[in-house]
Design a protein that fits this description.
Layout lengths: L7 E3 L2 E2 L2 E2 L2 E4 L4 E5 L10 H7 L3 E5 L16 H14 L5 E6 L1 H12 L4 E7 L19 H7 L4 H8 L5 H18 L9 H4 L7 E6 L10 H7 L3 E6 L6 H4 L1 H13 L1
Parallel strand pairs: 5-6, 5-7, 7-8, 8-9, 9-10
Antiparallel strand pairs: 1-4, 2-3, 4-6
Length: about 260
């Protein structure tokens, strides 16, 4: 990891709650929205993008260091909060990179203000019901089983989280899971309305999937490509659901090439 890369933090109050926001780099603005399990403070993927872009990584409301809004009840609520955040930060035309659960939030944001979107990247996104199979239900597994299911190579999991993740990280996963259930429980991890709204997204979109994603079935690629007007699909080899953690360099190359394209 590039130790010279300097990340700054701020905690603006949005809709009555403080959001923990990490930011680094210069160039065109890129908002990265993390997975349902929260995010590490630094990742090689974040650092790689920050070398060419102004990268903004907030902790989702109710996840990590961001406060939990007791009123929040939907993923679309989160999307509105992030649109508000962009205004607070003075960012207008941005690119969105959504990872898993964050991909759902990013897609909702894209439908709200298509003219303010530069490019959209969705990596193994939740948010649409797969035509075949089901999104892995984290209520049926303990935290270690669920996070391990997101990796193709268990040695990669051990490198990222440790063979036995520390207690404070497991506690954070539990806090994230509680918030996920508040906003994405019924139906679980998908929207019945989102597919009908994606037609408004005119910006180029890149849909990325790990070739061994056991959390969100690859069958979900079909509805995304059918409903996004200008979308392309790429697969990352030897990667599960957490592509950014397992194959950060490969994903960074794909995303960077698309964003500067």
């Amino acid at each position: 990891m590039d130790q010279a890369t300097e990340w700054r933090t701020c905690e603006p109050v949005i809709a009555g709650g403080a959001l923990h926001v990490m930011r680094c780099g210069d160039g065109a603005p890129v908002l990265i929205l993390h997975h349902d399990i929260g995010t590490l403070d630094r990742t090689p993927f974040y650092d790689a993008l920050s070398r060419q872009f102004d990268v903004v990584v907030p902790h989702h409301p109710g996840h990590g260091r961001s406060e939990r809004p007791e009123w929040m009840r939907s993923v679309r609520d989160m999307a509105v909060v992030y649109r508000w955040l962009l205004g607070t930060l003075g960012l207008e035309r941005v690119s969105l990179v959504g990872l898993g659960f964050g991909g759902w939030i990013a897609a909702e944001m894209a439908t709200m203000a298509p003219s303010l979107l530069d490019r959209l990247v969705l990596v193994g996104p939740m948010g649409i019901k797969p035509p075949d199979g089901h999104i892995l239900d984290q209520a049926l597994y303990n935290h270690l089983e669920y996070t391990r299911a997101g990796f193709h190579d268990q040695a990669a999991y051990d490198r990222v989280f440790g063979a036995e993740p520390p207690t404070d990280l497991v506690v954070e996963w539990e806090i994230c899971r509680e918030m996920n259930f508040r906003v994405a429980w019924k139906p679980y991890m998908y929207s019945q309305t989102l597919p009908h709204l994606l037609g408004s997204v005119t910006a180029p979109s890149l849909v990325v999937w790990g070739d061994d994603d056991r959390v969100v079935p690859q069958s979900a690629t079909g509805p995304w490509l059918e409903n996004l007007p200008d979308a392309t699909l790429e697969f990352v080899e030897n990667a599960g659901h957490f592509v950014d953690l397992e194959q950060p360099d490969a994903l960074a190359r794909l995303v960077t090439g698309f964003l500067v394209g």
